[in-house]
Write a structure and sequence with these properties.
The structure is a single chain. With about 140 residues, this protein is of the alpha+beta class. Helix 1 packs across helix 3. The N and C termini lie far apart (about 50 Å). The strands form 2 sheets. The chain has a 3-stranded antiparallel sheet. The longest helix is centred in the N-terminal third of the chain and has 22 residues.
């Protein structure tokens, strides 16, 4: 069976598209929860890179976030529109184990994960989770 994009609809293709959609939705959920009045585009991309390092997916997340009214972009500045911040008491899950921080790559014995509507994002170290969410400045 042919897909709308002209490719045949194989199970591997469906899984790849679903994985792509999952990354986009997770990136959008993260952008909805940023605690910033404004950020440089570079800082927003830094946050999105905790979800994906694929430049095409990053661009899709930014474009879709603007279309959905999650952010405004102008002259390299991004302004998040939502005021639904990450609540550390209920939106952050702590797990003990052997992890690598998704942002900086440091080894962790305790990982912090952000519980978003689109899924769980992490692990992060204690300082990186605060930077990703906007609790600490860079």
């Amino acid at each position: 069976m042919d897909c709308d994009d002209g490719t045949e609809d194989y199970p591997a293709d469906r899984a790849r598209k679903r994985h792509h959609d999952d990354r986009v939705e997770l990136g959008l959920a993260l952008l909805e929860r940023l605690e910033h009045e404004s950020l440089s585009l570079a800082d927003v991309v830094d946050r999105i890179e905790t979800v994906t390092s694929d430049p095409t997916v990053t661009r899709t997340i930014l474009d879709e976030a603007e279309l959905r009214g999650i952010i405004e972009r102008e002259d390299g500045i991004v302004r998040p529109k939502s005021r639904q911040y990450v609540r550390f008491e209920s939106d952050v899950i702590t797990k003990d184990g052997d992890f690598s921080c998704r942002r900086c790559g440091s080894g962790l014995s305790t990982g912090y994960f952000i519980d978003l509507d689109a899924g769980e994002l992490g692990p992060f170290g204690s300082s990186c989770i605060r930077k990703v969410t906007g609790r600490d400045s860079e």
